[in-house]
Amino acid sequence: MSDSDTGNSTIDGMTRWSIYNRFCGIASLCLLGLTWRLWIPQNVFPQIPLFARTTLHPEAIEVSAPWQWFAAGLLVVGSIGMILYPHWGHGVWRFLPLLYSCGWFFSLLADQHRLQPWAYHFSALALLVARMSPRDGLLAARGLVLGIYFWSALSKLDVQFMYTVGTQFVHTCGRFLGFDETAFSPPLAAKLALLFPLGEGLVVLLLAIERTRLLGSVAVIAMHSILIVLLGHGGLDHQRAVLVWNLFFIGQGVILFWPPHPRQVGPRHLQSVGVGLMNPKLIVQRNLFTWGIVAIMMTAPLFERLGFVDHWLAWALYAPHSSRATLSIDRVAITNLPQLLQELIPAEQEHGELPHDNPRLSAAIGSVRLPIEAWSLRALGVPIYPQARFQLGVAIALAKRPGLERSLEVDLRSAANRFTGSRSHTLLRGLPTMQMEADRFYLGALPSRSATAIE
Predict the structure, then answer these.
(1) Residue 293 shares a structural domain with residue 420
(2) What is the distance of C-alpha 298 from the center of its chain?
(3) What is the pTM assigned to this prediction?
């Protein structure tokens, strides 16, 4: 994963690192701008602090609005630091990008909804910029990219993806190619859906081998271009931040992996950029902490299916096997919901019974399913955090509103089995039962005190 690892490609590597830093900073600012509501104090969607809070100590881990503004400011300054690093990357200024990582961590204390995969990625890249030489940084950044693609591909090799999101992708592709939706039977569409994770795995292989890196870079451009078409306007119509992150991966693939054009340089130049560290042991020893963070990020997905690592932090992207909570409410209590959530309830649910895919819930006559996924998109411009723990916290925030304590019901679902798609279900009715269940999670599942004041 190196630029030929020879002296005559060193200047190319240093230039590549500078361009990559600027590119990451610009992309980060764009994504922060598109999702700005998520990063500031807000009262349009419940905030669920990251660290464990219990019903016995509900006052623990509460972050005030000024501290949230401070964390948001650190994110912006850190992003600017990545842009300026090529010019100010010496002395104390080289640690400016590290403010991004600090700001992201502080922001999580107030709301784990901010565990967005792109922010997680940029927080690691900011750490590389602040602590690593260009040579080591490129090596680590490439390793992160390969890891993201590998785990993302593996997360989609399951029944849930084949018959849900994967099938949607296939039908959307078919529509763009002029095929009718009936052209692909469900079994055929499910099998064709496997081409997406297999293609992603092929990209990993092509990028990892130096001789095929040019082809791998082209494959990255093709893969993300297809995703932008599928997810954009006229396709599945996802939010703009998703499209921008895919654009970032196109640029990243070119900057990090496009084969270099070596130039001869003198010994003085080689010495100035620290190319003498050819020994891998010396590279690791020099940045032991940073390499440790990278190693954790790349091995943590091993524990995702066991429930020890969140789905997005395991790079399970566009992977519908995640744990979740399905909320329903007595129809007579709809008027006690936040105004925006009321508006998102489909008319056919509000005025007539809509069968639910869980027989136990559909048996509850007069209940309505709450579209909390659409609520998150409309209120904050981001998908809801795909974790049962977080979504249970959203349910508790709603149940604490006047008139809703006994009117809400939650179907808490485990992650789906990779081979059968089956899930375990836990049905919770009423606020006390939900709070008892929240205490079972090792990370926070209770909302902040301000979450009950959602408009």
Answers:
(1) no
(2) 15
(3) 0.87
